[in-house]
Amino acid sequence: MKNTSVTIWSVDMERAATIRQQLIELLQQGEWTSLDLSAELSIQEREVFSHLEHVKKSTGGEKIMVRPYQCLSCGYIFKKRDRLDRPGRCPKCKESHIRMAEFSLR
Ligand SMILES: [Zn+2]
Q1: Backbone angles phi, psi at 36, to 5 degrees
Q2: How far apart are CA 74 and CA 54, in angstroms?
Q3: Fewer CB within 10 A of the end CB, N or C, for the chain?
Q4: What pLDDT is recorded for position 61?
């Protein structure tokens, strides 16, 4: 008897592995914002972040380069941010005009 749940799981895993490989290739070519990657890979932005986190962990966090988010109102740079996803607002001036971070692999 066929186990349907296992089949679905492996298809998802295969899809995720393919996207992750495409993501790595893009990151090796240059710098991308999460929106660029979302468009290039035809996935949602939140999926981009989960794949980026995975790539970050699998490369020991050393190879992934992040040009940090920056507040467009006061110039605050989110240098010490561990998470890769977008900050909601600036901790300094509380504005939410944030310049996108750019990701690449060296
Ligand atoms: Zn600010």
Answers
A1: -60, -50
A2: 32
A3: N
A4: 63
Q: Identify the CATH number of the domain in which residue 14 sits.
A: 1.10.10
- What's the CA-to-centroid distance between 79 and ligand 1, angstroms? 13
Each residue's pLDDT tens digit in the chain (106 positions)?
Answer: 555 555 666 788 888 899 999 999 999 999 999 999 999 999 999 999 999 999 988 877 668 899 999 999 999 999 988 889 999 999 999 999 999 999 999 8
Closest CA to 52 of 15, 90, 9, 22: 22
Count structural domains, the chain: 1
- Ligand 1: centre distance to CA 97 (Å): 8
Question: How much distance in Å is there from the Cα of 55 to the middle of ligand 1?
Answer: 29
Q: Has this prediction a pTM greater than 0.85?
A: no
- From its phi and psi, is residue 75 left (phi > 0), alpha (psi between -120 and 50) or beta? left
Residue position matching structure tokens 């939140």: 46
Domain residues for the domain of 18 are 4-105
Hey, what amino acid is at 73? Answer: S
